[in-house]
């Protein structure tokens, strides 16, 4: 019914075949229509086409060889038909599969083999295995018990006919197979499980064989049989098995009772349970069930899983002669031996305990009966079967025996008797033998010897005696022996005596003579007094000494002395005169010269004698002089060389004395003795000698170090505000003086590195590198340096930990000793003023250094580094700065520096006294000339009552005074060496000297200054004494001419300096003129009443001028104010003159004032009466400052030295001091012994 509709909607099969074959289907279309629809519905268009058109048109359309192909395909189809039938049958009878494997007893587990085949040989069975992919993918392990077991096998019963279990054991071979058959019926399959018997308690590899309905449909499943006990497995459940007692570990199953081990590792069942550790005390400690109690211990060890439980106790000890101690300590008693062993649950010995062998040497007996043999002693102890102790030979105390131990004991030689032993006790007697023979003493035993004075032999004659004893007698043969006593008559034996001239007693002790023959005393006058035959007449005496036994007799008389250069003394005193030595041999004069001979040799003078001697004759010449440092002249002409002192004397021909370097007291020399005396460094001169007297002088060498005070020699030092060290090498001054930085919160100072260093950060710092130190001002003009950094490209830097004012020297850090110039420890309020010279160089650390490169290398110039400013003197004491030198390297290499002419911001160059902006430069300079140099000596108390007085003066300060009014005091003490203090305004009136030091410190205490009085004058200069008599002032170098003129007739009437501290006031036209001579001058607007007297602490205003004292010269005193006077001078100055008018009455003051731009002249004209009141102020000050000499402290003046005192002291200008008869004596003591004083420059 559906076909027509279908045909209407698409191409019919007929049309399709027609189109494909190229032929029409004109006939039978209707007959095949229904068939085509059926085939189309059954298998699609292909089958329809094959049915109606044939293979040629369906499969091979348009092919000319189609028939041939049809034939070939038909033949192949017929040949393949049987194989297809067989394969269809095999497919119908498939491989059986295991559904379930269970056991009635024991445990079975499955292991997945992941398709691994045990037998890879190719066969039909292999092909079946490949066809059946489930074959051999399983393996089972059966853990059996000791009893028989059965397996229940459930298979796919539709494909299984029989089931077999075939096993093979490596020891017993093939085991009979257990099999079961599935009894299928025609209409019903057998569905029950098959039971198979399993071999009990045996390990084997088995195969479970499932046989299908076809002979090739066989499935092999490996089954491994292994007993649980073999692997120590117990208590198996569905979850797994535990290890048996004494083992640790377990066997676990995963799902479906499969082992939790890989297929290739199932054989590791033997390692699942390992023996557990056994910790029971006194057990063998073996792991697992083999653990048991040690030998001679009893107990039972049980296992709770892997934990050992139980107790092992010592077994009881039972048996005769046993010690009864339990366990290993059980043994035979001491002295017995036997081997113990376990018997059931106790310890015993078999066959019994026997007496032990006693192996102690020299013992006898066994076991406890063992003891020492006769003649031996000791203690034998037993420790088990071992005997301990010793048997030593016993002491033998039989009289006259050899006292040897044990059986070595016997009678001494010359004794007879027998000794035997009772245990350790020696018994018996030893008697002395009888003595017979010629010249023997007849005493028994050892006392039998030869008589005294005889020597021979005494031999024992032994006779037989029973046992070990000795019997016999002694027989001797003796003869007289020689007498070897010195000075004896040498007679043999007892007849030996002392010979003539000797006395003594000779005795004998056996064959040995004892005693001595000493020379008898010789008391003959003028003999040599030697004892015995050596007694002769002394040198210079004639005669002979003879002896009667021990008694001397004879006479000795003096001989006459004759010859050239002899001393003429008769007798032994005859010799060469002092300073002379024998030119030949002294000889005796004889009455008969027929038989000359040598008498004796005394002091290398040979005397001859023959017959009766009458006199001595000799010839002497000048003796050589070997005194070191002498002129080596022979005889009395010998003396010390020039430069040496000492006294040379003679004792006969021997020169005596010493020439040591003479004392050198030339001023400013090194004080070395003799020819080693030279001028000190800084001094020039020549020292010569006339014998021990030195002559010559050492003059200080001029010092021209820039910015120094130009003081000659070692007194030269840097000006105030400058720092540096000036050293002298011979006559050459070295060093430099550089300005110290100005005080500020941020101080910088540039310097150069001299040595190679490494900073704390590991950077290398090369020599020549410029470093910049940073710090800040701290307490009273001191600097605390905090850090340092090198200029780029350098990277060196340090952090410093200096305290305030701590000197940055090499003791603090190696860095400070490696830089030049050295770092200052102080700063100043204003820039230090240099000495006024035509050309000035001034080196500072500039913060604007790049501005002075003048374009040359400006990109490489650091802002902060050393710059040397150059200028010249302008005006009176001003500086005009004109150039700057940029120091790229140390100043010692100026060729590397950059020079640039500096300009002002407002005009082309700087004016006189103008300072470049931002630079620490001075406006002016100091007009200074040669200084007057002094040393201040301090009086020291005596430390010893007999110490020389001159040693009490010690040089402690160096003082320099300058014509411009400046003063400098420097410490010379060891603790403060080099510390200098500067001030302005020292004053002298020709009689007194006042030096004020407001900032000076001495040993931590303030010292405002010094006040001296002139003592006297000499070629060295003036000398002064302080008011407290503790200090003296003396010139250290030649004083300059301006100083000498300052003390010429200064005390005459009208001299201005004699009016020290005189207060003068004058009022005129509303202006008050007040002067305190030598202190200050003040000019201000006031009323006449206010101007009547000196006003202290005047309220300063715009109309107030105040000038402080600077210096005095040619009856004119110069004062200066703080006001600048640019561009002529650095300060306004005032010159004060005072004229005395005798005709004027009291109070008649006249003031004349003349003023220029920078200098004002003030002239006071006063009456003599008014000026006379001021002339004694210095004397009053001196009297007020005096104190008793004995009450002073050594080394310091009290602080009130510069204060005025109202007390008056009686003062005698001509008084002498208790310690010296005059001041000249004090001066001499200082000059003569100053080499012994400690003076530190």
Automatic annotation (TrEMBL):
Residues 1183-1241 are annotated as: Disordered. The keyword Nuclease does not apply. Residues 268-313, 329-392, 410-479, 619-660, 697-738 form the EGF-like domain. The chain crosses the membrane at residues 68-89. Residues 1197-1231 have a biased composition (Acidic residues). The keyword Transferase does not apply. Residues 1232-1241 have a biased composition (Basic and acidic residues). Keywords: Membrane, Transmembrane, Transmembrane helix. It comes from the Eukaryota. This is EGF-like domain-containing protein. The lineage of its organism: Eukaryota, Sar, Alveolata, Dinophyceae, Suessiales.
